[in-house]
Amino acid sequence: MEFVRIGIIGLGNMGSSHCIQIHIEHKVPGLKLAAVCDISEERREWAGREFPGVPVFEHATDMYQSGLIDAVLVAVPHYDHPSLSIEAFSHGLHVLVEKPAGVYTKQVLMMNAAAAKSDKVFCIMYNQRTNPVYQKLRELVQDGELGELKRVVWIVTDWYRPQAYHDSGSWRSTWKGEGGGTLINQNPHNLDLLQWILGMPKRLRSFVSFGKYYNIEVEDDVTAYLEYANGASGVYITSTGESPGTNRLELSGDRGKIVVENNKITFHRNRIPEREHNRSNTEPFKRPEAWVCDIPVVGTNEDHVGIMKSFTQAILKGTPLLSPGEEGIHGLTISNAIHYSTWTNDWVDLEQFNHDHFHELLLERIQHSKVEKKLSQKVVDVTGTY
Amino acid sequence: MEFVRIGIIGLGNMGSSHCIQIHIEHKVPGLKLAAVCDISEERREWAGREFPGVPVFEHATDMYQSGLIDAVLVAVPHYDHPSLSIEAFSHGLHVLVEKPAGVYTKQVLMMNAAAAKSDKVFCIMYNQRTNPVYQKLRELVQDGELGELKRVVWIVTDWYRPQAYHDSGSWRSTWKGEGGGTLINQNPHNLDLLQWILGMPKRLRSFVSFGKYYNIEVEDDVTAYLEYANGASGVYITSTGESPGTNRLELSGDRGKIVVENNKITFHRNRIPEREHNRSNTEPFKRPEAWVCDIPVVGTNEDHVGIMKSFTQAILKGTPLLSPGEEGIHGLTISNAIHYSTWTNDWVDLEQFNHDHFHELLLERIQHSKVEKKLSQKVVDVTGTY
């Protein structure tokens, strides 16, 4: 195979942007836009004008059966990510699914099972994994430079979204349309990075507010307390109601403290590990000596293009994926668990997560929703917003 | 009255340091060290050598009745702060009490009642109120510069105390000796500043670990989730087990975000308030413009000397106290509530705090304590540790 023929399903904000990057800007070597698909006539007409010669489909199944594509990029609303991915696998297609993997873990478990049965490449658009800052941070942690984790505090309050955003689509910020608020829309990236760097927390307890800042039914303010298997504790804070907000990730470990803020990594490195110091030290107020180290970050953040490149190379050459699709369940489990903890006013054990009950409680919210949005979808330029 | 004759009761780390600042270094104009008192013979002998001519007492009552003093500085172990202060008021003495006001709110309510009945000056050693950084921050908040509070996150993990510290006194880090760990020993300053700057939270829920990092029975790791009456949320994090640790206070409000770290105040100021922007804005991804402002901090941090000066001037000239004794109950209520929430595994409403039940649960812990420390007290230089 010389190149991968991809079909993009869903020509909203993200799907349209991916089409342009592939077909107009030729940013992904080996990847050819072979078809597009959208249920909206307006979007199909747009594609016909923008990408003359590229076949346009109304229905996914027709595109899947067309023989025109080897792979599909699923960029439809969240709820349909798993079903359209599962159908694609059944047609022998490679799948790149937008984040989140789905809205509730139950459907994502089914998607992962379909992927496991298939011999096709399965990838998820966790484009922030291409950020060299987080790649470097992960390397430091996994190489043991931080030592055993004691605490993580991630303040992610820079996802500001005004009321105009929530009003910009009828599906937006509703249980029925998106299945959640900022946890399911903006935070999948951060929740994935959190588990990608540190592994999964063991249990959590959350404090979630719904429609605190905006006229929406879903969450716009979240605090979660996390506990890890080794006893380390953590706090995850996010909101769409604060501006300018903060994105500051602090990891505290036996060998010091790492702070990531403003795309800089600062490592306050203990000359000897704290636990070792503690065992031998006899002075009541003595600390380990700590050095403030600026950690070099090399490389460029290729974002979505980087994930599409990784996907293409995995198909063409069998290289490992930066962001395997099966891993989408992890961040979503944290996300679902944060909702679930507030809904049930209790701890949630992530290893024993009750996928069925979460789904039931989500369905209840959809059923009791009083939201009636009259607005229609509007595709906007999303450069720099993800 | 030309000067205030003060008696200092308790010649441990803090009391000894106060004696030296007053009597040897003459740092507090108008304040004269007129007597000292300690139950330890060794400490009385030390005082006799260091401060020749200053009367030395073994028992507080004798010093109180001596007619030699107008005021007392109570620097004994925490549990005895209220009782010795109450007795001092009954002898017509002005009282400066070390922090914390007491170990449990029930006893502090009694102390405040005694102070209210007295016409004497009552002050508490919240020496961090003299820090011009926190004074400036308070001014910004109280003048409305931040706008309505949305969130506070205070990471106070720079109170590192190794095992050698916990082993340095038989009373240290025990329920019986101190009535708690880092909440009652190091954090009273921060919890006071928190309420001094923002007012009291309405309710909280906590996640406290006891003896997580050290061989102690009391807490050394704390996370608390706070809610304010206006709906603002907060997180307070502290630990004695991390080094180098962090002291970073972030306030997020309608008019921007203020970050205090490394004794610097940075105000990310919105050009127009976020709520106003949100009402008029029609663009889905548009934020208010924010300016990064370095806030000037003027003045010196006089610390304990500053509080002793304020106390002296209040007695001599009737000037307002920087740190009225009656306000000691606020930070202690937060502290007690953080213990109580973990003990009862429930929310704590601070306006309806169950003072009696907290006290009962504390007594249970004292009763069931298995700690037997064989170590004796050692007075160490505490410069720069409070």
What do you see in this structure?
Two copies of one chain form a homodimer. Chain A is α/β, with parallel strands linked by helices and 386 residues long. The first copy, chain A, has two domains: 4-127 and 303-325, Rossmann fold (3-Layer(aba) Sandwich); 129-301 and 331-375, 2-Layer Sandwich (Dihydrodipicolinate Reductase, domain 2), CATH 3.30.360. Helix content of chain A is 34%, strand content 22%. Chain A contains 13 helices and 15 strands. The first copy, chain A, has helices at residues 13-24, 41-50, 60-65, 81-90, 105-117, 132-142, 163-166, 182-185, 188-198, 274-280, 303-317, 328-344, 355-367, and strands at 4-9, 31-37, 56-57, 71-74, 94-97, 122-124, 149-156, 203-210, 219-227, 233-239, 247-253, 256-261, 264-270, 290-295, 348-349. Chain A has a nine-stranded mixed sheet. Chain A has a six-stranded parallel sheet with strand order 3-2-1-4-5-6, with helices on both faces. In chain A, a hairpin with a 2-residue loop joins β12 and β13. In chain A, α9 (188-198) packs across α12 (328-344). The longest helix of chain A has 17 residues, at 328-344. The model of chain A has no long low-confidence stretch (mean pLDDT 96). At the A-B interface, β7, α7, β8, β9 and β10 of A face β7, α7, β8, β9 and β10 of B.
